[in-house]
Amino acid sequence: MTSELRSRNVRSPIGDITIIVSDSGVRATLRADLEREWRRVGIDPDTVTPVDSGASVMLDDAVRQLGEYLAGERRCFDLTLDPHGTDFQRSVWSALTRIPFGTTNTYAEQAAMIGRPTAVRAVAAANGRNPLSVIVPCHRVIGADGTLTGFAWGLDAKRWLLAHEGTRPGQPAP
User: Is a pLDDT exceeding 80 seen at residue 57?
Assistant: First the structure.
């Protein structure tokens, strides 16, 4: 049985973000204007019901916490998550949540975090399918040489998120 998906848009400096929740948790945070991203994470926009404030406690909480993060008042999220993916993808996404605010890791460091040090490319591919951008901070992963690498919302958004956290690629926050 599939639970109903509900959503709300949040305005942000990097574009409107759509937060999607199921009965089990936050399913996705997607750029509202990037249709390809919705397909990338396997969500059909026609199956998602936009709802107003008060219609879902879980959605209200996710909107509040994302707003706090974007305002510089929150460093980590305390939400029940419901991302859909393979066991490997979920292990990669779980490792992302352990990269502290204001720091970055390389794909190799992330692969080591999950006990798969030779799976660097597979880790990078799983990051690319992360349905919970910002909440599950794939923007904190950079190339081995310290350069910014792919991000579903674009490198300008990744650059903004890292600067927002006080991070310069390859260096922890002061």
Answer: yes
State the DSSP H helix or E strand holding residue 142, giving kind and residue range, or none if neither: strand 141-142
Beta bridge partners of 106: 142
Q: Residue holding tokens 């980590």?
A: 76
Evaluate whether 104 touches 112 at the Cβ level (below 8 Å).
no
Six-digit token pair at 14? 């990097």
Active-site residue set: 138
On the 0-12 / 13-18 / 19+ scale of CB atoms within 10 A, 101 is middle
CA terminus-to-terminus distance, the chain: 48
Cα separation values, 121 from 44, 77, 127, Å: 27, 27, 10
Distances (CA, A) of 52 to 7, 84, 115: 9, 24, 42
Using DSSP's 3-state secondary structure scheme, residue 81 falls into: strand
The overall pTM is greater than 0.70? yes
